[in-house]
Amino acid sequence: MRQVAFTLFLIFAIGGSALAEDLVKLELTIRDHRFEPAEIRLPAGRLSVLTIHNADATPEEFESTALKIEKVLPGASTVTVRLRPLGPGRFPFIGEYHSDTAHGAVIAVDGGHP
Amino acid sequence: MIAALIIVFREVIEAGLIVGIVLAATKDVPYRGVWVACGIASGVAGAASVAAFAGAIANAFTGSGQEVLNAAILGFAVLMLAWHNVWMAGHGRAMASEVKAAGEAVAAGSRTLSALAIVVGVAVLREGSEVVLFLYGVAVSGGEGMARMAIGGTLGVLLGGGVAALIYTGLLRIPARRLFSVTGWLITLLAAGMAAQSVAFLQQAGIVNQLVETAWDTSSVLTDGSLAGKVLHTLVGYTDRPSVLQLVVYLCTIGIILSLMRVVHRVRPKPLLPTGSVAET
User: Fold this and answer.
1) C-alpha R_g of chain B
2) Interface pTM, i.e. ipTM
3) Which end of chain B, N or C, is less packed with Cβ atoms under 10 Å?
4) Which of A12, A75, A100 sits opposite B208 (nearest CB)?
């Protein structure tokens, strides 16, 4: 039963790798429990990949209920996450382990490059 | 202290709801406490080791190890929950009705207890590893006194446990004959929500890139981040902006579990097993 779903996943995964070329690439650094830059812009409606560098020695959890992302970053590490295509708007994110200082947002803008 | 309280509370609620439902679903099954306690204990031990190897896990599978691990854990839990429900559809009526004296049916109920103990274990593992990492981070940065941290964490555990206990006692108020059908539904929805969450992790990792479009947006009504949203997320898999694939997988999981339950229910009209035999499913 679940095997059927899993097989579907595999078929989808293989079919989907062709999409990889039109990815928008974004970068973000965490330093002293703050995001640099605090705001990132990207074109709306495009699949994107966000690379996050944690320059702090402490772990952090990159979390955004708006973006549907939950990702733990060990101290001094770099991770990447995939963002789904976004409609125009502001999508806030936080560093959950230091939510008093670590705030930021992804801003999706209509049409072409921002 | 407040930060520790909030984070621990949030994670404990998620795991606690699952433990509460499992306890209600296995009411009257002997040794269920031992099984559930084993599940919790191994979950805590697992959480500590996941946290210890967080760096290695995060870098595995070209940086998507964490998502792959989470998706696999959730997928496994879905299988265990589905198995429990399907098994109960075949044998559960004996346990729900008066034939409790026929001890073999009750004893046979412990067969799926191992599956449910695993579900409890992985729930605690997933939520616990986040708590451990957070507490570790605070301890390393030395931002807050350990004592205040411990107080916050303990309060979080107590509050989260309290909410789970409320759910459990609430479920027990349901008359015994209906309890298993209610917990059966809860477990089906729990499994569907976990399957959808597992899809979200695979999409976040970029392993699955299909049907990533947002199916609907109810974030103006109820956000995932709110307490009610969080509880509904754990119970029925609510999410304010699901992807299309999440929705498809959610509905398919419910459909598959329900149809398997119907098939098994029809095939085994007599739920009681011969005395002394080991249940064969």
Assistant:
1) 20
2) 0.71
3) C
4) A12
